[in-house]
Structures are given as structure tokens and as C-alpha cells.
Amino acid sequence: MIHLFNQSSTSDFRQSLDSEFKQYLQKESQRFPRADCLKIDLHCHDRNSDVPDELWGRILGLPETWLKTKKLVKLLNDNGCDVLTVTNHNNARSCWKLLEKGVDVLVAAEFTCYFPEYELFVHVLTYGFTPEQEEILNQKRSNIYDFVRYAAEWDIPLILPHPLYFYTRNEKIELAIFEKLAVMFQRFEVLNGQRDLWQSVLTLNWVQSLTPEKIEFYAKKHQLNPADFGVNPLKPKILTGGSDDHMGIFAGECGSLLYVPNLEEKLKFSNPSELALEAIKQGNISPFGHVGENQKLNIALLDYFTQIATKIKDPGLMRIFLHYGETKDKLSCFAISNLLLEMQKHKHTMKFFEFIHDALQGKKPSKLLQWQISKDYKFCIKYLEDIANSKKVSPEKFVDTVNRSITELFTQLNHLIVKRIKKTSFVKDKIVLEGFSTEELTRKFEIPSQVTALFSSKTSKKRPKDISGLNFNDLLDNLSFPVLMTIILTGVTLASTRLLYQNRDFLNQFANHLGKNSHRKRALYLTDTLKDKNGVSNSLSGKLKEIQRADLPIDFLICHDSAQEEDHLMVLPPITSFSLPNYGEQEIRIPNLMEIARIFYSGGYDRIICSTEGPMALVSLFLKEMFNVPCYFFMHTDWIDFIKHTTNLNQHERDRIRRLLRLLYKQYNGVFVLNNEHKDWLTGYQMQLEKEKVFLTAHHTKPRDYSIKAIDKKSLFPDCSEDTPVLFLACRISREKGIFELPEILKRVKQSIPDIKIVIAGSGPDSDELQQALPEAKLLGWQSHEQLSALYLGLDLFVFPSRFDTFGNVILESFSHGMPVIAFNCKGPKDLIEHHDNGYLVENNQQMSDYIINHFSHPQKHSKMAESAINRAKSYQAEPIMQQFLFDLGLRDEPVNINQIEINETTIDISEATIENTKRIVA
């Protein structure tokens, strides 16, 4: 049996990183006697970092921080730093001003240098230069080779910070860059307080792998002389630490200990900054501090956004659209500036942003605020108090408290939004879900092109009678604060994690190159339905059982109120849910986005699968953007066919849905389909998906339970015998399943076989109507797997009148129990049924009636067809289908070799002919 990954080892990925890095820091802490060490944060910023490297910041005219130098100095002193330095971008203004005031400071800056052959920018921390040298360094930074050579010539020490993070739009980062960096730099920042643990450990292992032989080899390969850059290949590389703090939250909590022998005596004659500079040059450095995951950057960006919201000025339309950058960047900045400027009109929201900023600095809201604030928002004050209190405990406690509070605050705000939506007249007076059909939603949902018309009730005396004509003002008055705060929290979480993983492909490549710390390959499978009563749920349940049986590297996550967690299955309660009565018992559940993001991160997943077009589809695309991971969609339903069979929408209206679906499916890295017709449609002119991104797959049969006995026909129809012909259908009782074709079909059959019976299993919105149209039918309602097996075994012929199904799981179920199937020659059925061998494919109702009559007129054919049906079912075993599924997802390195697959002992042996069928399916 093939076992690819163990679930526990996957979840331990981040724990292994944490353990490895803690061991390194523990060893470093014992390297030098603490009494002879100067404590310094070698990497921190204040408001003189006023020209950010990020394009959006430059377009919007935003500094990287509003932190005053005086406040930064106080924070560094409070955290026990013995030496002060400020490493602003491309300038040392703060250092010069401190020196003018008589403050001892190590002059420094973080220069952005250009790598010409790779079209990317690299940050370089630079120390101990003069004002004249600063000017020259700024000139030299347009070429990193010239910059580093000049620094070496004048004995100016350099540190390469966050070596695995670059500023580039080039998605292909070549490993040759690191061969050159190994030759050009002696010092590397291994501990960066704003980067995640994975990057830190990768940096550590890479630098420690740089032997003198490797550096000499790289030097010859790239025709670089290490001596030109002040590098001695025979000396070990030097590792440093810094907080990379911009907001004044973590400054001094991460940094470096600089070893100065006989420190106490030397301080009598030299300034700390002079001793620190000499220690940096000598390489007597030991990093210290705490590295999180994305939490620290998340906190820093939250503080940054709160300050942007209160301090941003209108950048001006001309600045935005005439600035350097792509159109999508400019449009994004235009949207962001409008949102932030609009938020400034909401004084309560602005006040709360100020409270968040204060809490992150350790300042609690005033007691008076508890009495002034609405009871709906008291939970916000509690979280702010928790954050402020934790600041005084420890850095680790603070980080944990802030991130826990953000998640819980997001959840509470969402519950408040739901509560207010339910109470507002927007819903109460205008929206009645029970009256909404697909047809009505499609025709009514029309957003005006004039944006102000969407929000202002004063734009016209008579509002259009569509969804956009509803009372948005009433809704916005009630939702402005919780919605804006939810947007900010969501945006911060997205931005911080995306920033860390925008070069994820490169990090994977780098880890593979090192042969260490490779991210585990594991997928999180999101679905809106797993425990519901429908065919999609049954198919997904079968997939989950195979994942559990073989311990495959996939975990399901569903949103449900009562489902229980299992191995490979996580269950989250929904924020809210509502049902659509026109679609039977199906519930729409709204998931907790933040909690799912936390699970994805902490679980060590590196790809996403989604199999339903509901809320989970939006969550999957959010995770894709947030973590920069591949995301796949599994199509179960042909919605265009569904709409065609259930509504009176015309072609133009159906095309609107088709374009929306095309937009959705194109966001995914791959789409799995269940039949060839669907694959051709997706890759054809109507949907225009790339052929290599559409994968043909299949559902698989479930192992048959031989302990189940056939049902006695007399238990269903007292007036019949075991020889009475009985048709069977199991499906959702809904119009699109073709169930209302049955009365006409049965009427014709009865003319030749008057005693024929029909049994229908399933539930759905049209059960009562079907019973009235077909009073002689036995409608059993929803049946368990055991009950269905007894029906398959005891009845005669499965009739499948649907022209809409993409696969037809019930056809496989019928086959596995030896029941032939008659179905229309369309989509899923025609890929499964072999005409006249294990069933019949027909074109219309007349043919279906004729073939039913013919089948029962030649009973000797039945046993042969039953045997053929069982053999056909053997072609759809779980093992090969799931292994091919893993390969298409990138979770398996080799394509499926059918002959090496061991089939579960509970299934039936496979013949040579069946092997060929299976090869065809997975191919």
C-alpha cells in the first residue's frame, strides 16, 4: 500500500523549525560572557524612513512610519540597549541629528542596492560612515557591486538583512544570486523580527553550509574576487540579529550582542558606539531575540494601517495615475485612498483606530470609555485592555495576545454584522429569501454604473426596482464601524502574510536546493457540503474515507453546527447560516475566514482544494492570495445546465452566469472535471480555460458490504412477487434531475408491462409534486447507505432520467451491486455506461420506454449485464483514482503506475481487462 505522508509529521513542520532555531539561539547565548557584551538592535527605523521601497507607499505618498526618533530612542533604552543606532532607508538623518544633540549613536542606514543582471533590489545595512561617504554610497547603490566594493575599500562594515527577501516583480529568482552574495558578503542577518521562522531557519542553514571550498568555487564561477568585497573565504560567516521595527513596538526586543573583551575597562576611554563598530568589523556578534511566524509583521501592519487611516492625506488623482507603476497598482491605490479617506468621515471608527494604536504601545483605554461606549462594542474595549496588559508581561505573551485578540475581534464583529443585517429594514422589508429563485436573483442583481447611485437614496426620486435599489443607507448606517474594522483586520492579515510569502516558490526551491527545511506537501480541502443529503456530499464522503484509509496528505475542513471532527476532518461552527427553501434542505453556511486562515497556517498546508461554488470558494481564493499557494477547484455541478433546467432565463441571461463562472474558475491553478464533455466545454471558446489546467478525474466506488441482503420486493409492494419487474431511482428529488419525465416513460412501459413497479429513494423540494404526478410510485425518502445497498440488490433496473449530472455516482453504486442502468446519452452517464453491455444509453423518452420493455422481455440478458456492471464498477477503484488525483495536485511526484497499486482487501479482485479500463480512466 502506498503511504505518502504522515499527518502528525506534517503538523510538526513548524514545531521542528521552532526547535531548530531555539537550539541555535541557546547556543549563541552561551558564546560570549554577557558582562563583556554590548546589546544593540542593529536594524530599526523611525520617521526618517520616509521613502518606502513598496510601490504603493510611494504612489500614496506614505512614509514607512510616523515614529519619532525620540520615542524610538526611549524604547531602545527601555529594552536595555547599550548602543543606539537607527537604520533608515537610504539616509542617516536621524543619526546625524542625535549626534548634534550629543547623543552617542552608531551611524547607520539601510541602503537599497540594485542587482542589474537580475532586475531586483537588495537591502544592505551599512555602519560607521561619514556624511561625505553617505553621499557616495547613495550614488553607488545603483549597482550593488560598486556599492560593496566601495564599502570594503573604506572598511565600512555591511550586513545583508533578510537574505531571502527581495524587492522584485521578477517571479523567477535565480539561485545564482546566492552564490554571488556568498562571495560578496561576510555578515548576514539570520534573525529578523519581522520575518517568519521558515525564512530564518533557511538562512541559518544556508550560511552555515558556506564552506571555504564553496565560496572559492562560486568566486571562480562568477569571476568575482572575494577580496574586492572585503570577504575572507577562510573565515566563517558572521550571523546577526535585528528587530526590523518600524512602528516602535518591537524595537530592542531582537538584536545582537557585540562582544568586546574587557568591556568595562574600555568604556572608560571609548564611546559605546566606537566599541560596537569595532566588534561588528571583527565579527564578534551573537544574535538574540524571538522570531514568530507572521504574527509580528501582522501586528506591525495593523499599527501601520491604524496610523494611515488617521493620517493619510489625499494623494491627488494626478499623482496616482501619473506615477510609475502598472495600471492595476494605480487602480488599487486609487481604491485604497478612497476607502481610507471615506473612513476618516466616521469619527467613531477613527477614534477606535487611535485606541488600537495606543493598545499596541501598551496604553489601556480610559475607564470613562467603558461608560461612554455602546454595549454592542464593549467587547472591543476588553480586547484592547488585554493587548495593553500583555505588553507589560513579555514579548511572546504580547504577540500571542494580539493575534488571538485579532481573530476573536474579527469573529465578534462578524456576529455583530449578522445581527444588524437581520434587524435592519434592508432585510426585513425588502429581502425575503423564500421568494428568491436563481431566476429572480440573476435578473434582479443589477448594480448601477454610477457609484453614488448605489449608496445615496437622493440620487433619484424613483429608485430602480432591483437589488441595488434597496435601502443601502439604512444598512450602512448600522454597519459602517463593524464592516470597516473587519475590512481592516482582513486586509492586515492578508497583507502581512502575503508580504512574507510573495516568493514562496523560490523558498520551496531554496529549501530543496539545501536539502533541508522543505515545506511539507499537504492540501486543505474546503467544501460547503459534506454532511448534507445530496450526491455531492456522498461523493465527498467517499473521498474522505479513502483519505482516512490510506492516510493521504489531504485534510477536509467544513463549516457545520453539529458534525463531529474525525481523522483528516476539521469542523468549524459557522458565523451564521441560512437555508434556500427552493433548493431543498441545503443550508448556506458563512465560515470564519480568520479561523480558517489560522488553521491553514498552523497546519503547515501548502495548497488548497475547493469543491463547491459557495462561500468556501471565496475563502479558498482568499487563502490563495494570502499564502501565495496553488488553489484547485473540483467541479461537481454544471450550473449552466442546472439553470437551463430550473429557470426560464434566456440565453443572454444564462451567458451572464457563464461569464461569472468563467471569471471564478480562471482564478484557480487547476480545475478537476468528471466527464469529457465538461472538459471540452471548459477548454472551449465559451469558458477559455487552458487545457493543461483542466484535469479529468472520477468518483470511485465504495467497497461493497456483503453482509447486506437484498430487499424483499413484497416489503415494498404486497401485491407483487420476486418476478415482478421493479425499476429503481435514487437521487435528489428535484426538477433538474429529470424526474418529471418518469410519468410519460412509465405510462408507455405499462402498455406492455402492466405490472411494472417503480421505487424512488431520496428527498428534495419536488417530492410532493412527484408523488402526485406518479401516485403508483413508492417514494421512500432519504435512505442510508445500507438501505440503498439492499434496494440495489433486490430491485431490477436503475432508471436515470437526468440530463444534468456531471458524473452520476448512483450509476457506479448500481453497477457495484450488479444492477444495470438505463440513462440518457449525455455527459456523465455516457462515460460510464457501455451500451447493451452493462446498461442502455438512449436519446429520448420513447427510446427509454422501449429499452425498458426490451430489457424485461429478455430476462436471460439480465444476469450477463449484471456481471458486466460489476466488472465495470471494478474499473473505478479508489486507490488508482486518488493516486492520480494526488499527482495532478502536485502531492505525488510520479504518475500512477496501475500495476504497482495494491487494492484494498475488501474490494473485488481486478481482472486484466479491468486494469486496462482503469489505465484509461486515470490517463
Automatic annotation (TrEMBL):
MF annotations from Gene Ontology: glycosyltransferase activity
Gene3D superfamilies named in the record: Glycogen Phosphorylase B, Metal-dependent hydrolases
Statement: the UniProt record of this protein carries the keyword Ribosomal protein: no
Top-level taxon in the UniProt lineage: Bacteria
Keywords, sorted A to Z: Glycosyltransferase, Transferase
One Pfam family named in its UniProt record: Glycos_transf_1
TM stretches of this protein: none
Record EC number: 2.4.-.-
Signal peptide interval: none
Domain Glycosyl transferase family: 722-871
PANTHER family membership: SULFOQUINOVOSYL TRANSFERASE SQD2 (PTHR45947)
Protein name: Glycosyltransferase
Organism: Aliikangiella maris
